[in-house]
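haha ok so turns out i had the wrong file open the whole time. this is the CORRECT one, sorry everyone. sequence first:
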Amino acid sequence: MAGIWDLITELRRRRVFRAVGIYIVGAWVVVQVASLVFPAINVPEAAIRFAWIAVILLFPACVVFAWFFDITPDGLKRTPPLDAGDAVDPALRRNDYVILAGLAAVALGVGWQFTGNISEVSTDSAVTTAGGPQASNSVAVLPLVNVSGDPEQQYFVAGMHDALIGGLARMSELKVISKPSTLLFAGSNDSFAQIASRLGVAKLVAGSVERVDDKVRISVSLHDALEDEEIWSSTFEENIEGVLHLQDDVAQAIAAQVAGVVAQAPGIEPRTMNPAAYEAFLKGQFHIERFTPQDMMLAGQYYQQALELDPEFALVHWGMTKLCGFKAQAGLISPTEAKAQCMPPLIRALRIDPFLPEAHFGYAANMTWQQFKFEEARPAFERAIELNPSYAEGRVFFSHYLGIMGELEESTRQMELARELDPLNPFVQGLHGVQRLMVGDPQGAIDLIEASMAAAPGSGFGNDVLWGVYFDMGEPDKAIEAAIRVFTRYAPNHFAATLLEDAYTGDNFESVMLQLGEALAERFETSPVPPNDIGLAFDLGGDVDRSIDWYEMAYRAGDPSTPYLGVLTVAENVRSHPRFIALLREMKLDYWADKYSAQ
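then structure:
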């Protein structure tokens, strides 16, 4: 105890306690001032933590300084030792200057790190989302405003918006947010800084389109998200026949402002357009994005009209392929019809424009979900992303392809990139849910898919997945609800939804699934019922052999859901069955075959 008391006495004699007290008060003042000043100079509150870190790191330096030195009216003096007597010279010695230099270096180092950290937080704050700070080359194009005075021209304005995003996205120097996420801000009253923060970009493009007879005028402005101010604007004008040149000029000008270089996307030279063909194409695009049977029919009519006027319009051929795939996914045409109809326009599009990212993506998708030729799909996915690094849709489905192949880490990485490029798109969020199921996170899958459907009411996507996942999670009531939604999206299959509503009583899930399987199988030849749905019904009903029979039928018929057999098959006695594992091997889904063989 004597030693401790002597230490305390020495600390008091050297005025260390006084110095520490003064330091604590001063540090508290510094932190309080920082909490008031930082918001006023646009430094985020998160940077205050660096003020705390700085005062904590400097505390030991304060104690060392107080032990060796006193600040007196005559200047800085060396504290004499306890037994020094009056003869001790208090002047600073050579080693004192070494100590002071070291303490100064520590203080400067802490101060430098403190300032640097605050600077980094300040720079990133206005352009940061959950995904982190955004690069200066990240940009989003907000929906263009129709200033033509004719509401009927909205399809044309929407087409210009789509084309401008597509033109920028193909430039490797830029990171460009996809159209669906930007559409949420049509007519928004949010500030540019707020919008940029939600989209995760450093810069925003706003603009308008005016169409008067055969003249098209596009006015655009570029806004810096950090400063929340306009940094550039310009107006471009062209005849409708040169609209592709106009789009290219606008994209080049914006890229030069965003990236500081003259960016060039790979591709063929823009050509003169047939105005009527281009308008028909834009109308087709307008309707296909609505994804209803009626809109798909209208999209097909407009695409056909565009091709009759301009047979060499590559984007229209790609549109026909996309429409074909949508019809197959919605059950409007059979898988066999899709295999015959979807590929020819795609091949034509690639022949006309081998630099068209959408066509390469379409080829990859066709090889994956219609032809089941997985080895041919990968290079096409990679080429599509090479031609359009900001291709969110391409990355989403490449992520699914990689998950199907069992490359789960890269699948996750591609999905994360896609979410950065299209952060507010419910469809992408739902597809992310499927990817979470691939990596063994069923609750994450449910959360994402449910949130996706809540954000896009009426969307039928995701119910096929929830049907099986909810059963696997021990929630049969929710599984029934999801199954009912599956069969209400297409009128000829409403009988299945009615059957589920009438027959399910809460304790007979398996028997109802068997009834559903029987009813779907009976109508298979006359109604476009996906064979995978029939297989899943028998799967959930516990009829292993009939379930596998229909999964084999789905493979033979080209059901586009078949590549997900390894992911979506629910019953353990189905997944471990030798016939099912043999089917996975035949499809070259070796990752899933190995996984279930080992269980």
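Residues 2-125 form one domain.
again sry for the mixup
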